[in-house]
């Protein structure tokens, strides 16, 4: 049996009123008496009446829904961002449609087609690690779909963006290792096409330069899928361990790269921090329970979500075309634990 939701016609028929009277009462029109409004509202609650969102969207040309695209919902960083987005969206009467690209450009494109076919009012997106063609996003932007980027942004699209101060975060992490007497500091980064990878790498290079350390490019490795491909991380780590002059510390530039690398080092029986100092991006609250406890660069994920949602709703609800866009750069938190303390 097909489910049929209660309608205005059902209320009108049950109460012996016209549909126009019921409709106006539910919109709180001054033309309808308070007694009649109460009668209609009470009955609407009794039969669990809900306004038809499709009808409302046709009338108001808005769906009160926003799309969110992340690479992986299970990733602690992204789940915290989503919580921040929802806290603002629901408070303002918007529904949130959450999707994940799984680091696939093809899947991201399918998601964009799906979301826009559902007439979302706006989009919050962190692009996939594979995304190097921004044609679809540019077309949506040109058609005036409100878009806010966070974390992994598209620099050439002029709209609001919310990021972590990636350069400063990695600079501080690398400097911490240098100050703890680590000599050969390697880095495992995400896809070099991503703006965040370039920013984080710049922080590493700046720290080396400021401490008069010559860059050894053999100590720089990339994982094109940002750590989602475990084999890719394993190859990067083992290549570093095979070097004639091995690294004695690692800076890891993505959440999944950090946890996968730590696991590989344990499996290879590499003592941390005795043989290898480790610090990396990670927002999990469980990194303090690792053995040894893991030093991390933690992004203000919930706040990033709040800011992204606030900026998007401002775009959606603005009565005029917005031409002044913000780049919100939030400071990361460097949490120093055992894994990056040189005990030698």
TrEMBL record:
Q: Does the keyword Cytoplasm apply?
A: no
Q: Where are the transmembrane segments?
A: none
User: Which SUPFAM superfamilies has this protein been placed in?
Assistant: lambda repressor-like DNA-binding domains (SSF47413), Periplasmic binding protein-like I (SSF53822)
A GO molecular function annotation here is: DNA binding
* UniProt keywords, alphabetically: DNA-binding, Transcription, Transcription regulation
Xref: Gene3D superfamilies: 3.40.50.2300, lambda repressor-like DNA-binding domains
- Is-annotated flag, keyword Cytoplasm? no
Provide the HTH lacI-type domain boundaries: 6-60
Q: Which InterPro entries match?
A: HTH_LacI, Lambda_DNA-bd_dom_sf, Peripla_BP/Lac1_sug-bd_dom, Peripla_BP_I
What superkingdom does the record give? Bacteria
Question: What's the name of the protein?
Answer: LacI family DNA-binding transcriptional regulator
Q: Which organism is it from?
A: Niabella yanshanensis
